[in-house]
Design goal:
Elements lengths: L4 H7 L9 H7 L8 H12 L5 E5 L6 E5 H8 L3 H13 L4 E5 L5 H8 L5 E6 L2 H13 L5 E5 L2 H6 L8 E6 L5 H14 L1 E9 L6 H13 L4 E4 L4 E5 L6 E4 L7
Helix pairs in contact: 3-5, 3-6, 5-6, 9-10
């Protein structure tokens, strides 16, 4: 029987030496120079202690109910070192336009937006109350390079609300099922990718279902680098990097 994704990652050999120098010397090391990283970590800590109650509608599970912000953050927030990796990617590859599917309380959004004030982030959240909460928190901090959208992901694509807009980085962090993840990936590849693009899929080892989604997607992308970092899978399209899946690790704890 095939091992679950999280266990198979741990027993597979890491292949950092196969990556271009920019990964090992900047993106996956622990040296950090961006002052915005500290601000993002502080925002994350604030969310992890926030007792505000939200009436949450979860489109992924179909379950609704009242939850505290700190409980939402504890369950679904972007971990510090992975947020740092996203910031380094935005910096290293001069990312201009980002599409995030799954704002939640805005922790991942904060890492994306604060990497570079000139980077435009469009973030989409299905739950109305969560959307309003995150938007108000960013307004308090006067962060102006983020556009908040309250919409169901499937409706977002079917209604063509994005108007064919092209993005050079995508962060898929909502509706953690294989079927939905693959469907959104296909929509992105069909209509919204710049020639050079980076697609980050969160929680690829969260369940066997998500592990299956990552395997199917990475097996399709034979002309791209598919970087498996345990929690995140990152696909680099048309960057001229080594092709196929590479199992790698972040060198040190943040």
């Amino acid at each position: 029987m095939k091992l679950p994704g999280n266990i198979s990652y741990l027993i597979r050999s890491k292949e950092n030496e196969k990556l271009p120098d920019v990964f090992n010397e900047f993106i996956l090391d622990s040296m950090f120079q961006m002052s915005s990283f500290v601000d993002c970590c502080e925002y994350r800590l604030n969310m992890l202690s926030d007792d505000t109650k939200l009436n949450v509608k979860d489109f992924g599970t179909g379950k609704s109910g009242v939850r505290k912000v700190k409980d939402i953050a504890r369950r679904s927030s972007t971990q510090v070192r992975y947020g740092g990796v996203m910031q380094k990617i935005i910096d290293a590859f001069k990312v201009k336009n980002v599409l995030e599917l799954g704002t939640s309380v805005g922790i991942g959004t904060m890492f994306l937006a604060r990497a570079n004030a000139k980077t435009n982030v469009t973030t989409v959240e299905g739950c109305p109350e969560t959307y309003k909460f995150a938007m108000s928190e960013f307004a308090k901090r006067k962060i102006v390079n983020v556009t908040f959208v309250n919409d169901d992901f499937d409706h977002l694509f079917s209604s063509k609300a994005l108007n064919g807009q092209q993005f050079d980085l995508f962060f898929l962090d909502g509706n953690h099922t294989a079927e939905a993840t693959i469907r959104y990936f296909d929509q992105i590849m069909k209509s919204h990718c710049c020639k050079k693009s980076i697609i980050i899929i969160d929680d690829i080892n969260w369940s066997r279902d998500m592990f299956r989604a990552w395997n199917e997607i990475s097996e399709r992308m034979t002309d791209s680098l598919c970087l498996n970092l345990f929690r995140m899978g990152i696909i680099f399209c048309n960057y001229g990097f080594p092709k196929g899946e590479i199992i790698a690790e972040i060198y040190k704890e943040w």
